[in-house]
Amino acid sequence: MKRTLLAGMALGCLLAVGTAPILPAPSAAAADGAHSAPLNIAPAVVPALQQWSAGTGRVALTARSRIVTPPDASVQLKQTAHQLGLDIEKLVALRLETATGAPEPGDVTMRIDPSAHFGNVLPQLKQEAYRLDVNAGRVTITAGGQPGAVNGAHTLLQALVSSPDRRSVPVGTAVDYPNYAVRGFMLDVGRRYFTPEFLRSYIRWMGYQKLNTLQIHLNDNEIGAPGGDWSKAQSAFRLRTDNPAFAGLAAPDGSYTKADWDSFEDTAAAAGVTLIPEIDAPAHAAAFTKFRPDIGLRGGNSDHLDLGNPAATTFMKSVYSEFAPWFRGPSLHIGADEYEGKLVDQYKTYINTIAPYVRSLGKKVHVWGSFNMMSGGGAGYDPDLTVNSWNNGWYGPQQAIDDGYDVINSNDDLLYVIPHASNDHGYGLDGRQIFESWEPHVFPRGKSLTPQQPHLLGAMPAVWNDLVHTPYTEIEVHGMVEKSMAALAQKMWSGTKAGTDYQAFLNTVRGVGQGPGTSFLPDTLGSNSVSADLARGRTTTASSVESLRFQASNATDGITETRWSSARTDDASLTVDLGSVRRIASATLIWEAAYAKDYDLQVSVNGTDWTTVARRRGLTGPTTEKLSFPAVDARHVRMQGITRGTAYGYSLHELEVWGAGDLAAGRPATSSSDETAGLTADRAFDNNGTTRWSSGRSDDQWLQVDLGSVQTVTEATVVWEAAFAKDYDLEVSTNGTHWTTVASRRNRTSPDADDLHFPPTSARYVRMQGIERGTPYGYSIYELRLN
């Protein structure tokens, strides 16, 4: 079997030996012994480690290293060890077998020991703590509980990915644990359907960053009814059951079956994430009042349940009873926000009826904090609830704690994203602001709590898809979320342990990537991604500025609440220097109210000679403009105003420039065979995820792309169709004759997309060389992408 080649790297020779050697530190001791080797800095991981005791040298894993668990290890720990082996193979192309018994030199050991010392971890969080000991040619992960084992595995993964050789980790001991129990994220799928692949990818991505809670808001509706007619309003309930009693309840534009939900739970268990399903009532309930108009206010012409009708409560009990068995996590969120205040007595009775009923189904009950606005506080409500404090006026955090509730910070001013809205962070939270000035105890307008207040469980930012008629995709939402997710993960786990240099933190984020199983999500922070904003943080100049408050750099700071504004003249421009010549193919301009009626987008290699790549004429209002053009080399990008659309100058919230990305897109492709005339090699490089190449039905088949010239390639993504490869190699060549294997995959059992990472390699030709099929069919690939 072919092995990954690390041509030109000293580590290559280590792959032939049976133990993991201790490599010298980069600056080894002098020959005369006069100077000792420097101590290792902590591994570059996200979130940053709580404690690090440094040693010298590094321990390298080899092809003979194993992941070993004790003979009495739980099934869950063995599954985590197995998953770690799969993830290491995906991310660094090194296959490690799993075993039970005594570890040998060169092995990775995983064990659970609740009695071990884990620094200053709070007792209630010890299950999530772990130690990573790297010494004497071994790597040992000791966890306080099963969640800690998953956290330790993710740290080891990141340490390998971010190391220079992608095979070794620094000698030393990490003691790591979270500051808060709930490190969450909430996604509103009620108002906009998100595909199962997106949700599974998000679960994996969250777990890789040690975010441990995903709340899925499963039903909702648009805020106002068109013309007052709720039968015409957008609404959806996203679970679909075979029970005929609920036939027609699931949304026709997208819903999740029991099999879908099982896949979410399976993915969450492997990633160390707990799912909190939310079925929202008695407000936000148009999906239910459309299904059963008799239980809605005003004869069903409302998105509120008629709590004066006992049938409404009975129906909601039936919904919770039907779906609670689907959910493996300990909690179920019942919504309970923004109901009509004049019906407070009925509302209170409903809460005090539904909450114990849901607990009788074996679930803890979560609610959105609304008690202050409804009735001036929590007196008289069910006492055994967990409250998302989302608005200080509706129910502030200290008030909820004083009333005896545990609280999760979901404050709307600080943590809500409403895509494309003019308020509530319509283009994503500001990652820098989160990194520099926020932690879970921080609430606006003087309502902050003390850090790690015992009743503050943690935090949960949220995406709310309020603008149901605005066109945008789930991938656009990811771009908004990724701006701040790593910073949020950092501040929820270990606070300020990542230091104060935000740019250095972002470099670490880029270094560790998004983790295994996330190729569905574009890496909007990665420097090689098609979705990387190349203008972010770059030097930006303007022909004029309205005032110092509206300087040019505001348009490339990644913060949509800031802006650049020019003087009040037609002939004005904004120019960004990308720092080096880059291959670009699109740009996004987010206009403020003072927009351009006519303008050109221009590019230059030297800042002197300019070429227009896009022209816009006759605009009638401010909007977000997405301009695509044939890929072009450029260092400088300029918005050249021609005619203003208002009496003011030009004003841009953001000028974003996107890389051409995939080196293989649209390039000439060949294959050993094509199953049919419609499944040819070029279909795997057409940037269309619905077309595919499929080979003949034999093992030894290949797919090849010509990049046109020798390029530096560092990673590949293979998006498999159902006819996947059990075993295959990724090979490269500069001349099409002599080939080198840069990544190998073996014993694959499913058609999951593959992320392949390898040292920077010069290549003009790249091919997938099939070795053994995973099905009786041939090999079939939707997309083979290269960066």
Brief description of this entry?
The chain is built from 14 helices and 34 strands. α3 packs parallel to α4 (258-271), α6 (310-323) packs parallel to α7 (344-360) and α12 packs parallel to α13 (474-493).
Provide an overview of this structure:
With 787 residues, the chain is α/β, with parallel strands linked by helices. Helices cover 20% and strands 30% of the residues. The chain has 14 helices and 34 strands. The two termini are 26 Å apart.
List its salient traits.
single chain; alpha/beta; 34 strands; 30% strand
Count every helix, treating DSSP H or I runs of 4 or more residues as helices. 14
For the biggest β-sheet, the strand order reads 1-2-8-6-7-5-3-4
Q: What is the number of E strands?
A: 34
> Which structural class best describes the helix and strand composition?
alpha/beta
Note the main sheet.
8 strands, mixed
Mean pLDDT: 91
Please state the CA-atom Rg, rounded to the nearest Å: 28 Å
Beta-strand content: 25-35%
Q: How much helix, percentage-wise, in residues? A: 10-25%
Assign an overall shape: globular
Stretches where pLDDT is under 50 for at least 5 consecutive residues are 1-19, 25-34, 527-531
Distance linking N and C termini: 26 Å
